[in-house]
Amino acid sequence: MIEALGLMPWQSLRCYPTLSALDQPYGNPGAKREGAELALRMQRFGVSRWDPDPVAACEAVETEQPQQGKVARN
Question: What are the residue ranges of helices labelled H in the chain?
Answer without folding.
Answer: 2-5, 32-45, 54-64
